[in-house]
Amino acid sequence: MTAVRFLLNGEPWSEAGVPPTMTVLDWLRGRARLTGTKEGCAEGDCGACSIVLGRRVDGSVRYQAVNACLMMLPQIDGCSVLTVEGLASADGLLHPVQQALVDADATQCGFCTPGFVMAMFAFHHGGGPAEDIHDALAGNLCRCTGYRSIVEACRRIASGPADRFAAEAGTIADALAQLPACTDYRHAAQIFLAPRSLAALFDAMAQFPDAVLLGGGTDLGLRVAKDREPLPAVIATAGVAELKRIASSAEAIELGGAVTYTEALPLLDEHFPSFGALVRRLGSRQIRNLGTIAGNLATASPIGDTLPCLITLDATVTLASRAGERTLPVESFITGYRKTALMAGEVIAAIRIPLPAAGVEFATYKVSKRFDQDISTVIGAFRLERQGGKAVALRAAYGGMAARAMRAARIEAAFGGRPWTPAWLADVEALLARDFTPIGDHRGGAAYRLRAAAGLLRRFQLETSAAAPMRLEAL
Ligand SMILES: Cc1cc2nc3c(=O)[nH]c(=O)nc-3n(C[C@H](O)[C@H](O)[C@H](O)COP(=O)(O)OP(=O)(O)OC[C@H]3O[C@@H](n4cnc5c(N)ncnc54)[C@H](O)[C@@H]3O)c2cc1C
Ligand code: FES
Ligand code: FES
User: Fold this and answer.
1) CA-proximal residue: ligand 1, atom 17 (nearest)
2) pLDDT per residue over 207-223, tens digit each?
3) CA-based torsion, 116, 109, 51, 229: positive or negative
4) Angstrom distance (rounded) from CA 286 to CA 294
5) How far is Cα 326 from Cα 317, in angstroms, rounded to an integer?
6) From the CA of 146, which ligand is nearest?
7) Could you tell me if the CB of 142 is within 6 A of ligand 3?
8) Mind listing the pLDDT tens digit for each residue in 212-271?
9) Which of 316, 388, 330 is nearest to 359 (CA)?
10) CA–CA distance from 234 to each of 42, 204, 215, 250, 448 (Å)?
11) Ligand 3: which atom is nearest the Cα of residue 111?
12) Interstrand relation of 361-367 and 347-354 (parallel, antiparallel or unpaired)
């Protein structure tokens, strides 16, 4: 008999009697009778289901907001789970975050407020600067009435945690350390495995060859949250130590196959600020705390945001299986519309991004209908090597322009070796039309996509122009 064990609002819980594909949201509302956490969209967009997970890190606890609607119950094994019911103290004293919302007249309807409270709690404990408020709230969609006062409440608590959760961090961490890990959860005919090492992962994959591999579940979770699919076997990568590896050297950065966006961001910000800025627009904090770059690659969506960047930066992907490892350029890993070179028994073990030589410029731009938490209509990524005012080599890759993320071969060939001036920009659209035949859909027509893609390259030229470089955001 196996059980998922966790702390729920400070109390130890053990659950062995529900399907592993039951969402954390359904479990909270149905089984634990904690109905403060709401279901709005059931697809990670609205934030009404935001809860906070505390994980043990270096003898303390790190808190992160996540969307309970996308998570399967065994994903909270070993965590301290906080819901809106658990923040006030036993004597009814409101948590500083709740009090700030009251003081700033920032409470809204009962549907969205609990999610805002939890996102703000995570922000309060995240140690980010006050400028991060917008980012911290981007995953909580309601803008009905009092958004400005919510921002004001957030500003008041931005100075950091001075609450009982901070005071008790060591005790909570010790309690989490006592929880035995659940690596094999079964219910009726369903199974959820959570291996802790690569060897155990390969064993699990060999035993259940048809099992679904689960990263953060921000793509896969929709199959259980929205489609209610009773997946028979799931194998989670999040606990596999080797896949959590993050390394950097003078040549490259390397991100393991279970590294989340949030974990990757410091290195991306340091070496590829434009890539970091893009990742901050991918989903919300709730999504980035769970989602992985490996999951984005394996999904191979034509509008997967990281793909054009990884292609442009000559990143490689290491695929591992029991038989050994092989390494492929990301460009050849993506083979078609939602198709990859991943073979049965293989897992994405790591993604390696070489650091560009000094003087090489890189930028990526995303066009979406909404700035935050929206998937791309078109995304472009560019890398430029210059010598004496000439573009020695230009690399350009796009998403949203074809069935998969692809390089713009004619653009690259036409502009390599030519003066890096706006003079050639007039030709861009025609060349792109020979490289791509984009589809039209509700996000944008084919002509719009071509024009937008050309605009992104023009923007790159302006921002890297030796004569008058400019940041367009600054205009
Ligand atoms: C609200 C919302 C907003 C989003 N916004 C964006 C956005 O702006 N841009 C964007 O690109 N995406 C977006 N996404 C999609 C999603 O967040 C990303 O694609 C994410 O990177 C998926 O990673 P994951 O770990 O959650 O993958 P999962 O959902 O766990 O898995 C996705 C696929 O990858 C496979 N997989 C996972 N890890 C591995 C591995 N190590 N080896 C082999 N296969 C693996 C799984 O088997 C599955 O097929 C959004 C999703 C949501 C719900
Ligand atoms: S219910 Fe909308 S994000 Fe979960
Ligand atoms: S959804 Fe609550 S006020 Fe908008």
Assistant:
1) 218
2) 999 999 999 999 999 99
3) negative
4) 17
5) 8
6) 3
7) yes
8) 999 999 999 999 998 889 999 999 999 999 999 999 999 999 999 999 999 999 999 999
9) 388
10) 20, 10, 10, 37, 40
11) 2
12) unpaired
